[in-house]
Amino acid sequence: MKYSTSRWAIFIAAVGIVTALTVGSPAVQAQTTGLQVNIPFEFHVGDQLLPPGSYLVMLRSGSALTISDGKGLSAVRLTNAVDRAEHKQAPDSVLVFVLYGNSYFLNEVRWSGYTAARSLLKSKAEIEFAKLNAPATRAVVAAK
Fold first, then answer.
1. Is 43 in contact with 126 (CB distance < 8 Å)?
2. Residue 134 has what DSSP assignment?
3. Which region, left, alpha or beta, applies to residue 128 given φ > 0 means left and ψ of -120 to 50 means alpha?
4. Domain boundaries, the chain
5. Which end of the chain is least crowded, N or C, by CB within 10 Å?
6. What is the pTM of this model?
7. Bridge pairing between strands 103-110 and 43-45
8. In this structure, how many other beta carbons lie within 10 angstroms of the beta carbon of residue 93?
């Protein structure tokens, strides 16, 4: 009888996990749709430096952000949810960069129609650039 009970418990747990993964929150589901963006400058995603160009931005596994040029060049970075309730819903999808000196770092991704955004965790490289450079400024690039 213990064997049957264990199998039943495993089955119930598996159903719960599958349900949680497929239902998810509406904001996260909406954010898994890709954003097309043309970035006109060289930029960092974490410790990786990417050239100017056209990129697809996707949120994977709830917190991992992937940015790819579709030709084999890509970067992945963990993110945190940012509640932008004071701004209501974002009117446009945008990527927000922080500029330290002449170096751009991808900082945040906002999806149109949602109050939640995703903020990238700072890399060691970004922390070093922040220490060495004057106060940072922000640059915003529109996405589709």
1. no
2. S
3. alpha
4. 25-142
5. N
6. 0.73
7. parallel
8. 21
